[in-house]
Design brief:
single chain; 174 residues; alpha+beta; Alpha-Beta Plaits; 2 domains; 37% helix; elongated; ACT domain-containing protein; ACT-like_dom_sf; ACT_dom
Length: 174
Amino acid sequence: MGLWRIRATVDDRPGFLSVLTASLALRKVNILSVQVHTTESGAVDDFLVEAPDGLSQADLADAVIRGRGRDAWIAPADVRGLIDEPTRVLALATKVLDGSASLEQALDSLLGDCDISWRSTGAGGFTATGMQLADPAGGMLYIRRPAPAFTPAEYARAQALVELTRAASRHTAA
């Protein structure tokens, strides 16, 4: 059995998530965890699944399409994905606060493989492929990830991590 991360959008209507999960179940895919991100275009469902070894990325994509999912992003995963999201975020915050990780390293881990750069000016916000966050040290952090698309929940998590870092640095300076 292999671990996979699947992110797909479904209409945010009764029964649509169950159609997608039934399509995965027909292929003997076991859903280990699911997070639902509400967006303007529907519900973005983020699954960690265990699939039979013979099932390919294309097979999983087909299951998503047959389950009325769209905009699928599928990638191999590892056992670290089994850690629940609140625990993972708290562990990342702890690493930033104790100095064992930089804010940029924590953001990269929080958001998945992304490119982070710094600029002296800019405005906060996010798009499908990027987000801008005020750096507690000054300037702006520019984060880019081609796929999967950023969700409002991911932006809120990243913003909260930055704000925690900012508050901790103010407290330390006082």
